[in-house]
Structure formats: C-alpha cells, structure tokens
Amino acid sequence: MATIPTLRLDRTAIDTAASLLREGALVAFPTETVYGLGADATNGTAVAGIFAAKNRPSFNPLIVHVPDVTAAEGLAELTPDARRLADAFWPGPMSLVLPLRASAGLSDLVTAGLPTVAIRVPAQPVAQQLLRKANRPIAAPSANPSGKISPTTADHVLTGLDGRIAAVLDDGQCSVGLESTIFGGDPLQLMRPGGLPVEQAEALLERTITTAMMGDPHAPAAPGQLLSHYAPDAAIRLDVVTATRAPHLGFGAGPCTMSLSETGDLSEAAANLFAMLRRMDHAASTEGSSYFTVAPIPETGLGRAIRDRLARAAAPRD
Ligand code: TXA
Ligand code: MG
After folding, report:
1. 157 lines ligand 1 (CB under 6 A)
2. Quick one: which atom of ligand 1 is closest to the CA of 195?
3. pLDDT in tens, 236-286
4. 31 lines ligand 1 (CB under 6 A)
5. What is the pLDDT of residues 86-98, one digit of tens each?
6. Is the CB of 111 under 6 A from ligand 1?
C-alpha cells in the first residue's frame, strides 16, 4: 500500500495545521513536554486515527488540550483543589483528570468511556496558537508508536510515524522533555510523575499528595500506566555508578558515553532524556552491546519523573 509522506510544516504554518485538524486529519505539534499527536477530540473518526497511527490499545484514554482554564471549564468540572492547581500551573506541564461534563461533546474514544477526562493547557507558544486557531479541543498522546520512546523533536516524530499522519508542525526541541504530571481524583492524587515537580503542587496545596495505585477502589484508574513503555531496542541497567564496557549514560561528573547533565542539573537531564535514550540505543547497537547502563538519578523534583521513565524503559517487555 502506498503511503503519503508526512508534511513537515514550518512553525509559521499554524493556519495550515489548524485547518488540517479541523478537517479531521492527524497533526503532530510541539508542546513544552513532548510532541503530541493531535486530532479533533469531538471527531470520533479523527480520534480513532490516533489509535491506528500509534498502534495503541484502545482502552487507553487520551489527554485533551485546550488553550486556557475557561476552555477547560467547558469540558469538565474543576474541584476546588484542581482549580488552585490550574490557576497556579496552567499553562504548563500539568494535566488534570476531572469529572467530564455531559455537554462536553467529546468523542467517547477520548475518555475510553470513563466519566472523567484528562485536560492539559500547554504553554508552548506554537501549541497555544494552534489550539486557538483550531478552536476545538485537541486530543493528543505523545507522537510516537505505542510503547516506544516519546518524541522531543519533529525528526523523532517522523522516525516513528512518517506516512501515518498528515503533518508535523516543527518548532525545534521541547524545553521540558518529559510528559506532563497528571493529578486526578478527589482528593487529588498523583497519577503520573512528569514535567511539573510534585513538590511544587504539594507546596501550593500545603499537603502531601499520595500516588494513585492501580486497582485502588478509591483512586482513579490510570489505564495508560503500562509498565513497559519508552522501550529502546537495547536492554537497560539502571543505577550503575561506574561505567563498564557497555555504553554508559552519565549524570554529573565521571566517564560516560554521553551525559544527561554534566553539572547534575535535573531540568537539563529531563530535556535530554528521550533524545539521549535514542542515541544510547544507537550506540549499543553500533558497539554490538545488548544493553547500556545509566547512572543513578536522584529521586527529588524532576528526578522522580526521570526515574519513572527510566524504570519503564528498562522494564521486561512482555
Ligand atoms: O505531556 C503530555 O501529557 C503529552 C503531551 C502531548 O501533552 N501527552 C501525553 O498523553 O502524554 P498520553 O495520551 O500519552 O498520556 C495520557 C495518560 C495515560 O497514562 C492515560 O491513561 C491517562 O493519561 N489518562 C487519560 N485520561 C484519563 C482518565 N480519564 N482517567 C485516568 N487516566 C487518564
Ligand atoms: Mg506516551
């Protein structure tokens, strides 16, 4: 079957990207976290296309992107704590799972039939303009084949999805580099660590935020939290202090193939993580190594999300 090559749109071609979305086409676009694979969230056929392009299990609900809190309120009810987080951290690298309004008009595929919806207001300027011009809620998971490493450049998007989506809007590298932090439930719990450090939300709410456990009847289910995810081809050994003969992904001082951050800066490490996992996979393959090693990353701030992604990348694949 002949495929149509994916259009690479310049960052100024926002009108074209918005028109494609309104016509029901799939358009990948930059956010400050990772590139998203966007579709009109009110168009069931368009949303179904996301699952097909990614080969994604269809029980997995998607995050809906809107330009501001007002648009979010049209789709979902904000609990008092959710509103405090929204006012403080939107636009930004945070998503909230909230009770869905009956009048929202979203495709059931977006929520996987749940009574809740995950909403995000991204800050990235091109994403902001695109959402305003499209003037529809845009469903967007990360723009990579299901189970693979999330994309932080337009090239990464094309490597995984060329010919499977209409276009990618290119605005260079994502500044945060990790998917959004997801909070949900009442009281709010952490459903996925990500680009907003949990400590910042805890400081605002003046309480500890617990982590939602799968299967907990009092916690919202996060069906997307499948353990093996972000999987490179090579196996990965974590928390390796000293480089061995296998390629080594460093953090801080010390010999390594490449370093997430030579100065031990967690923001820099987060921004580099997914691109470097790709390069380490390539290094392992060219050096004939079945695995690569990764230095220990501290568990604080963005380190929590980095460790979460590394654990998933290193998890058994079956
Ligand atoms: O940074 C991000 O969040 C990126 C960019 C593109 O915005 N998007 C992203 O979306 O990571 P996705 O679809 O890959 O991750 C969505 C996560 C999944 O783990 C899914 O299970 C969870 O959100 N989720 C979505 N709706 C939910 C709901 N109603 N209840 C529980 N979990 C939900
Ligand atoms: Mg993803």
Report:
1. no
2. 1
3. 999 999 889 999 999 999 999 999 999 999 999 999 999 999 999 999 999
4. yes
5. 999 999 999 999 9
6. yes
What is the Cα–Cα distance from 92 to 211, expressed in whole angstroms?
21
- The interaxial angle of helices 154-161 and 266-286, nearest 10 deg, is 40
Position 218 scores a pLDDT of 44
Interval between CA 242 and ligand 2 midpoint (Å): 31
The Cα 53–Cα 149 span in angstroms is 15
DSSP state of 78: P
Which structure tokens are listed for 72? 């979010």
Q: Atom 1 (ligand 1): residue with closest C-alpha?
A: 179
Distance, CA 229 to ligand 1 centroid (Å)? 13
Cis peptide preceding 80, ω within 30 of 0: no
- What own/partner pairs with CB < 8 Å and gap ≥ 24 does 197-204 have? 197/300, 197/301, 197/302, 197/304, 198/304, 199/300, 199/301, 200/89, 201/85, 201/89, 201/94, 204/84, 204/85, 204/88
Distance from the CA of 69 to the center of ligand 2, in angstroms? 23
Looking at the CA of 99, which ligand is closest?
1
pLDDT value for 243: 87
pLDDT tens across 190-237, in order? 999 999 999 999 999 999 999 997 554 444 455 445 566 778 899 999
Alpha carbon distance 97, 19 (integer Å): 28
The per-residue pLDDT for range 3-33, each reduced to its tens digit, is 788 999 999 999 999 999 999 999 999 999 9
d(CA 10, CA 19): 15
Q: Is the CB of 185 under 6 A from ligand 1?
A: no
The CB of 62 under 6 Å from ligand 1? The reply is: yes
Which atom of ligand 1 is found nearest the CA of 110?
A: 26
